[in-house]
Amino acid sequence: MDSPLFADESKQPQIEYGESVNMANSRTADPVLRAVAELARVAASGGERLSIDGVRRLAAAYGVANAYVGSLAGESAAKVVVTAAWINGAALDDYTYDLAGSPCADVLTHGRLFVPSGAQLAYPNCKMLKQFAIESYFGAVLTAASGEKIGVVVVADGAPMVKDDRLHPVLGLFADLISLEMGKETAQRELKLAASVFNHSPQGIMLSDAEHRIRKVNAAFTAITGWQEADVLGRRDNMLSAGRDEPELSEEMQTALDEGAVWIGELWSRRRDGEVYPESRTVVAVRDIDQRVLHYVCMFSDISAEKFAAERIHRLAHYDATTDLPNRVLLQDRLLHAINRAGRAEGRLALLFLDLDGFKLINDTYGHSAGDEVLRQVGVRLESRLRKADVVARVGGDEFAVVLNDVGHDSDIQAICDHLLEVITEPYDLSGHEGRVTTSIGIAVFPEDGSDVQTLLKHADAAMYRAKESGKNRYTFFAPEMNERAEERSQLTRQLRLALERNELSLCYQPQYDLATGRVVAVEALIRWQNELGDLVPPAHFIPLAEDSGLIVTLGAWVLNEACQQAQQWREQGLGFGRLAVNISGRQFQDEGLLEAVDSALAASGLPGSCLELEITESWVMEGPFRAESQMHRLSEMGINLVIDDFGVANSSMAYLKRFPVQKLKIDRSFIRDIPADQDDAAIVSAIIAMGHSLGLRVVAEGVETTEQRSYLRGTGCDEVQGYLFGRPVRHDEMNVLLAYGPTLAPS
Q1: Dist. CA 367–CA 358, nearest whole Å
Q2: Are residues 175 and 238 in the same domain?
Q3: Where in the sequence is the domain holding 316, given as residue range(s)?
């Protein structure tokens, strides 16, 4: 090949950074300048790839063997990716080399670098120089339009070069041209990407001008609305409005956009065929440098399915599936509203608690389907004999409740109860068989017998038990002496306080399994009480007492400490238990000292927070969602996993669930008990699992007792299971043995 434009003047490595030169009257530079001009022509014509053709022309113009263009790789810019290389007279495939220790690193620092000779001596750690036997080096930085350094352009040779000040700026011209090309290619890629996102987005996208006239829509817009682009261009972007939203919503949206914010919300839209649907919409204003609006970008999606699922879950969670009457949850809500109305009006209301007499005999004689039919007919009879202003609910099993609003004298209540006794006593047609039941009714009156929901429920329940004890098929008004039962509860509370001192309390443990792998993923700690007489007191008896008395805080702290100590022992023994699950009661969750109690239990035991899982009942969370969210975030910051327990029985908002830092939903056992035979419960379970997965949460089913239940849960995608089918709660020594043998689920 021809000799380089530079001749060897020194064998010692020399390095020069940058230059100040004069190109006037340079004859030597003419061929290089001609190459630059040709390179610019090629770039303008678009007929050749500038970077590849450019390095060839660059090497030829300088009379050197090597020329290449490299771009910085990755955010750290630790490597150079050579995308166009002319090495020893031939194009070279793309390759990568480390920036550290190379002359290119100095190019990026100083802008230009000239090493006339001894390049390998000057940069002994640069493998690229050794690989291509480079003796001399001349490089310039590539800069984007934004000023960001994006790469280097280099000419190099195996022979030395000498400095020629008239030629140094020429490489800068090449660098500028190549920078422009790379910027153009990047812009084209970004435009193609943006176009691809626009065209293939599953969300509808509508672009309108500053006057809200539609200028462009994507394919998803057409798929969702039924409108073709040609039909909507130039029309106002509110053409999709269904007219159902309040005017304040449009004002809110425009105000947010005027203030420079992004508007996100839900509204009602109308398809081309007239169908109205709920829509989740995001709108942003695109502004110029002077903050004038250029465009509005609207992205939206049809949320009909999500709304339907949420409404169905709400319906199933608040209404009894058998009778279609309000359930206990909804009853409490409506009773609260009734109390508030009566209080403001200084009026009275009556709460009736009804328990069917002889219902068990119907079930035992004719089967559960006949029992369900009786329940349905009782519900119909109650609703048909009462006013629209009154409330009828099924609160569980064969129990019903009635709220009588705006009652006058007790005699009025008595007349209604007499009528209800008569109605319920009438025979029931059970597919050719005649069934009969009666009912016992307890009555509590506001404000005489209580001024809040729980008190009225308690007193009506106490009165109902007295009616049963008195011979059934009758009604009884609450009387203070019925509080004897309350005294028994008080005595049990005192015994519970002593139980802590006497070490009568203990913990049992029940495993939770991953349905996919069959492995234990958590072990739940469950409290047990064996009193001084040796009798086991069911948790359902003493936990509510602890809640009412406030003793639950002390009791909960004891459970946390004991369970964490045991879990740490398992860790030290190398026994895999996944996470330790501990129930946190509503009262305990609301207590200011909860965080301190949890931190103390972890510190005392040495158990990491990541090994602890706290289960919080859904109803308590939704009682004060804002406070709950704050408490949850503080617990989550400690590394603790959070679970919403007994999910499905309260009114959880999707919006709140998305904000809560929870990892799991635990389906209430009442929905698991009758699946898959009970289609309504099965629908609830499927809906909860689908909703949980849509929020990125794992779903746990508790109370699993049959293989049919397990199979159904596996088929619906439930993640984890717990129940007697897989193991009853056991003492810690039995759990030690279970964990030691690595328990797994048998194939279903």
Answers
A1: 13
A2: no
A3: 310-478
